[in-house]
Amino acid sequence: MLAAAALFAADAVVFRSGWYKSLLEPDSSVAMMERMIEAERGRQSQPARHQVLALGDSRMGFFVRFANESDRGAGVRFATLSLGGQLPRQWPYILRAVDPKANHYSAILLPLDDYDDLDTGQIMAERVSDLRYLGGQLRLSDLPDFAGSFLTWSSRWQAARSILFNGFAFQKDVQAFLAAPAARLRKLEQYRDWEQWIYNYKGESRSLAGLRVDRANRKVFLPEDVPAPVRAMVERELLAHPAPRTGVMAAYREHWLGRLAERYRGSPTRLIFLRLPRGPVPPVPRASNPEGTARRLARLPNVTLIDEHFFDSLERPELFMDPLHLNWPGVERFTLLLSGEVRRLLTAS
Question: Exposed/middle/buried for 188, CB within 10 Å: 0-12, 13-18, 19+?
Fold first, then answer.
């Protein structure tokens, strides 16, 4: 018991105090998440009539430079904490970090692949990788609910262990740092201006223009200059058979999206769900689910559902760089469409 207490105390000094966060590998998920959270806390003092925050993964191609530069005096200021690999289970903890009283934002943008709770074949409730994003934000009080949200005892144990001893969440990072501390420090120095770099970032302009899909014969036709990895990804994604409905996605969203709706119940903050552009070509139509989680939550007074066909005009090969992600022209159009609709909703309200 004394050894366990000593280990817990040492772990708390190094990791819970925030001391080690300044040494994290700058390209890692947890380091990027921590930097973005700290930057957003500092940005919140900027005056604006409406503060709007966007969450989501790499498919949420929302760049605040386009949104803020097109404001034209409406008084809406946009920010984003979206990050590749970010899932709804992470959202309550991220929002707790930047909006502890659940009242700072006029709107929070929550992207989904669909409003029908379609299963994908992946079980998000078993994504232990969520720990790589939330390692610095999980508290001891989160242990029962967060660890209990996993489906297997093995995953629950990994989550519980990382919450009890933060060092487990940072284990690989610590090992890499100890292997080459000087190189890590030099790399950290290069990231001092990362906020400005991200704000002015210009993404990939290549496209899938010329793409044709023959689903009857299960063939994809692409221009010869499309790289082989992208070609393989296009074939895998666009010719995949729809996953059977199991209810796993519905249960996952019910838990985590419902948690957000409950947190902001009675708050001045509006939760805005949007369906992302689905790909360079429209997918095979599937039966709609009128009782999908987002649709049911939209019956609440402070939850809004943007029309699921709002971004259909972007589902064109020339606006995608691979089967999942918009290219830079697509990102710009998506950002301007979404920010314009959010301004309209906030003005109307």
Answer: middle
Phi, psi values for residue 50, rounded to 5° = -130, 125
**Cα 332 to Cα 313: distance, rounded to the nearest angstrom:** 13
User: Which secondary-structure segment (H or E) carries 118?
Assistant: none
- Cα dihedral value 96, 302, 248, 81, nearest 10: -40
Name 277's Cβ contacts closer than 8 Å, sequence gap at least 6. 311, 312, 314, 315, 319, 326, 330, 334
Q: Give me the CATH topology for the region 44-121+204-348.
A: Rossmann fold (3.40.50)
Question: What confidence score (pLDDT) does residue 272 get?
Answer: 97
**Helix axes of 248-263 and 91-98: crossing angle, nearest 10 degrees:** 20
Beta strand ranges found along the chain (DSSP E): 50-54, 76-80, 107-112, 212-214, 219-221, 270-275, 303-305
Average pLDDT of the residues in 25-31: 83
**Nearest in space to 271 (alpha carbons), one of 137, 111, 118, 70:** 111
Among the listed residues 87, 91, 83, 81, the one whose alpha carbon sits nearest the alpha carbon of residue 41: 81
In 10 A of CB 325, how many CB atoms? 20
Least confident of 158-162, 255-259, 341-345: 158-162
Q: 312 in helix, strand or coil?
A: helix
What is the CA angle 59-64-67, rounded to 5?
105
CA proximity to 54, closest of 339, 265, 349: 339
What band does 83 get if pLDDT is binned at 50, 70 and 90?
A: very high
223: which 2 tokens? 């221009």
CA gap 35, 212 in Å, rounded: 41
Report the SS3 class of residue 16.
helix
Closest Cα to residue 213, out of 284, 152, 151?
284
- The owner of tokens 């989160």 is 142
Task: Choose among 96, 85, 148: nearest CA to 122.
Answer: 85
Structure tokens, 130: 């969520």
